[in-house]
Amino acid sequence: MKRRTLLGSAAALVAAMAAPAFGQDEKLKIGFIYVGPVGDGGWTYQHDLARQAVEKEFGDKVETTFIESVPEGADAERALTQLALAGNKMIFATSFGFMDATLNVAKKFPDIKFEHATGYKRAENVATYDARFYEGRAVIGTIAGRMTKSNKIGYIGSFPIPEVVQGINSAYIHAKKVNPNVEMKVVWVYSWFDPAKEADAAAALIAEGVDVFMQHTDSTAPLAKAQEAGALGFGQASDMTSFAPSPRISSIVDNWSPYYIKRVGQVLDGTWKSEATWAGIGDGEVVIGDITEAVPAEVKAEAETLRDKIAKGEYHPFTGPLKKQDGSDWLAEGATATDEELSGMNFYVEGITAPMPQ
Amino acid sequence: MMIDPIAVFVLLLGAATPILFAALGELVVERAGVLNLGVEGMMIGGALAGFAAAHATGSPALGFVAAAFAGVALSMIFAFLSLYLLSNQVATGLALTLFGLGLTAMFGKPYEGVKAPAMMAGPLGLNLMIWLGLAMVPVVWWALTRTRPGLILRAVGENHDAAHALGYPVRRVRLGAIAFGGAMAGMGGAYISIATVLQWTEGMTAGAGWIALAIVVFAQWNPWGVLAGAWLFGGVTVLQLRLQAAGVAVPVQLLSMAPYLATILVLVLISARQKFGRSAGGAAPGSLGRPFHALR
Amino acid sequence: MFRLEPRASAPLLWQVATPVLAVIATMIAGGILFAALGFDPVAAIRTIFWDPLFGPAASYSRPQLLVKAGPLILIACGLALGFRAGIWNIGAEGQYIIGAICGAAVALAAYPADAFWIFPAMILAGALGGWAWGMIPAVLRNWFGASEILVSLMLVYVAQKIAAWMAFGPMKNPEGFNFPGSRNLQQYEPASNPELIAGTGLHWGVIVAGIALLVTWFVMSRHVLGFHIRTAGAAPRAARFAGVRPERLVALCLGVSGALAGLAGLFEVAGPAGQITESFGSGYGFTAIIVAFLGRLHPLGILLAGLLMALTYIGGELAQLMLQLPAATVQVFQGMLLFFLLGFDVLTRYRIRRRHA
Fold this sequence. Notes:
The complex is a heterotrimer of chains A (358), B (296) and C (357). Chain A is α/β, with parallel strands linked by helices and 358 residues long. Chain A contains eleven helices and 14 strands. Chain A has helices spanning 6-21, 43-58, 74-85, 99-108, 133-147, 162-178, 195-207, 221-229, 257-268, 297-312, 339-343, and strands spanning 28-33, 62-67, 90-93, 113-117, 126-131, 152-157, 183-188, 212-215, 232-237, 248-254, 276-279, 286-289, 322-323, 329-331. In chain A, the strands form three sheets. A six-stranded parallel beta sheet of chain A has the order 2-1-3-4-5-11, sandwiched between helices. A six-stranded mixed beta sheet of chain A has the order 7-6-8-9-10-12, sandwiched between helices. Chain C contains 15 helices and two strands. Chain C starts with a strand and ends with a strand. Chains in contact: A-B, A-C, B-C.
């Protein structure tokens, strides 16, 4: 049952792309596909800012295009192929759900460099990149632990996937460190972006007595709720400064620009290699937004010290002794979590009472 | 672990308001015998227009007025096609939803990342729109059951041929009902952008219009039932999130299916009562979804 | 003033002319819209409607039209039968999702076995799943008189929640690092539905869609069932005298359209989509309603309408790529297209007469 004929289709595709791809000026064409609209104010918006940063950095040496709001699955594969056929020599696929589509298309276009965000499958011409958001969560978790008066902090989760679970654990561990009485409440909204539901989730947390919360969803709706109720929150993905100085007391920003600029530069000078990049605060990929005057100076200083220690690599947010939620041992004194452990994380650390969704 | 029921109720009132508005509007439309599946499109239109106006004028009240007008404007496309060109209502409504979602995404770009003005506070810590939504329930009920225009509207919805024979202006009545539905859907959408989220983003109504359609059925085409339905649908979301916040393990997907299954159950019960029993109360309007064409 | 006078039968000229007029009107209105947004209207229209067919990369995008149109046509065929009979299944989206889930369930249960029967069994499960989901509104209508429009619509949401539950729970890929979504069936050969001839976009779903078109044509125009369906739609009371049993017709139309939608979902999950995710339903079931109407519930029309719809999707992506037009363009276009068609349709069904005072 050999039903696949990849080589045949690749030949047809190469024939199709031959005309537009060559014989033009030497500009490097770079394509992007986004899972949301560029105006989502969060995840996709930040990727598009990085695209603009690439244009600014390299001027007329590059030309960028994007396709937004691409559903994951078959549509993604087609959008990627169209970018490839349009002569793009480097393509950024900026959502986890584009993973298999990216690998399929990459197989047909061995000359094109693909960059896939947050995935775990690589190929000769497919690199992956991700950000250590949990490093940032440690910093804002510290601020949250200091700022809460009710000793209840909250977390609005999108989907129970490792990246989000890392964030919850990291935030809790560091809040607990500065405030042993702190309790963490978690609400899952099962969406990356559903403003009304996010607002309801924030309201539910506030009703539970939470007065400082973090979010791993993209809209500013939770901050709007916080403002109404006098609670505090943090910007997510983008800076969300329109809610500063309060309720937005700081933020955790995805800054893809340094990585994009570095990788585009490598394609331009021919040194690009497929690799897995997982960069954090130290590389400028995770940025702690301005900590506002609503936060006391000593708390701000404490948070910034932690941030700088993480950036220099002197401190890992998951350093033992740590136990899992069920009381079993996880990390021994002084041990740090490996990247493999983190990338499949599906448990809470000891002390979080919320149930892990199954 | 204790959950304060009053606090949950206050959350619920806010969550239910957009769908309450939209569903009350659609209720009147359906009682006039028209099925408009474009609620989502009109809501998102209202969400953008309301937000833009509130932002430009600094007044949320003017925002809601603008939202109502936007809803009416979109509903008039539907009315023109379905009433005057006798198009299929299901298809026309779907087209309206697509059109509304697309158009607002295109024209909403300048408002992304902009913040709305502060919402109008009202008594008991609930804003004025929540109160207005609650007040609309008895108003709609009274207008439908206790006034002559309401009686005519229901007659048109039950049997448009008979109503026409009696000399009632079927099309004009329906035009009015559709416009009312548009205005209410527009305001419901604006509640999401102006009061709940305080910003504009494309697609932000996220299916609320479809929930409103379900509520009308759940309500058995009765305004009080719409209130109950809006509370049920809003309540399930709020309660589910609230339970999570309290640390209770919740089967989220299964729970969020429940209101839809309840709606089907209610629909079956009222249909069965109508089919096998004596009472016709709570049944769907007789002419629902059927185009009206007067030969004379 | 004008008044409308129903025609005894729709003239062929208008039946063919109105969709064409609608497309032209959409292009004009769309062009005005683009100009208002500051884009070159001619380039935009050309990119959306011409380039996917004859542009520089057409040898790729032409087959993709089939991939995109296949499920639309398959679903629309079933819907058209019902719509003709006045039976309104607007829950095809739900039947599509359930069909995909049932089909995928067979594959995931069989994994990693390699046997010839897996793919046929999936097809059967997909069709059965969609059929069962479509039979719910049919049974509720026949037994209790519940509106199939509303029940089938409600069941769409239920199906969406089931898909989300599956993606996070029972069907989650055990090797997927806890990310939601099932195993990718494209990578499980006995269960996959690949491109059959390279570069054509042809997969089993497209072939089945073609068969469905032929069968629909045969049933509607050559078989007594088609006569029953048409009579039931046009004159329900007369149909009873002609020996049509409405209950059977309801069950048949909803069951068949459900099964076809389920098949479409199965072919999609085994082929182009590859896996069950929480957002598996991507609107094919609703777009197919548009396709059925745009194609005037006629197989040939549905074929053309399905291809046209696919064209707007693919052209819309090209327009983003080439002209940086926003993604929402496609929705606006589809909405307008349907508006214009429904509007012009009045010419098919009615004669316009000047009203005498």
